Amino acid sequence: MSPRKAAALRATDDARTLRDHLVTTAQRLLAEGSAATLTVRGIARAAGVADGVLYNHFPDKDTLLATAVRAHVDEAQRALGPLPAPGEAAVAGNLGIYLRAGLDLHRAVLPVFASLLATPVVLTRFAELPAAHSDWRMLLSDYLTGEQRLGRIAAEADTTAAAAILVGICHDQVLGALLPGMSSPTVDPDAVVTTLLAGIGPLE
Asked: Which pTM was predicted?
């Protein structure tokens, strides 16, 4: 272990590797401001290491930032905890849980993605990295499909469109708060679910 590496990790009394330390530092810096303003020197100083240390673990700054974004999204996904499975409890209540989880997830990750709009290469590399946890949107789609198979959602319902509506609500609520002059009226998740089920509930 190099002296600089030892010092950086001793400062936080952390057992992580230096690579993990760099990712965590970049993750924190992304949450604090725009990716466009981050430099190798700035990341290194925040991590307490020499500038060149970054290149011992990553080919360039963009790859480090993409890895940091991946770690941030994985943490946000993990924080959602277990979500309802098809057949459990009531569909309306379950969809309310999914929608609230989606809103929490989007509030956690969209500000970071918004800061990356000026650095599309980071977003491209992020998309190439494997996820540690199942994507919330995929879990939602699988849930709706499973409920449809059980007959708790109408057979003729378009569950892909239903998922897109709930995802769209998350985008509207969170992006509206991020963009100046674009704020959207706050919606009640239960009211959204009630409205949605009025169109996809089983026919009587």
From this structure: 0.83
- Burial per residue of 2-24, b for 16 or more beta-carbon CB atoms within 10 angstroms, e otherwise: eebbeebbeeeeeeeebeebbbb
Whole-angstrom Cα distance, residue 19 to residue 57? Answer: 6
Residue 164 to residues 61, 174, 178: CA-CA distances in angstroms? 34, 15, 21
Contact 117, 36 (CB under 8 A): no
Domains for the chain: give ranges and CATH numbers. 1-58 (1.10.10.60), 60-200 (1.10.357)
What are 96-129's pLDDT values in tens digits?
A: 999 999 999 999 998 898 888 888 999 999 999 9
* Cα–Cα distance, 80 to 115 (Å, whole number): 23
Measured from the Cβ of residue 153, the count of other Cβ atoms closer than 10 Å reads: 23
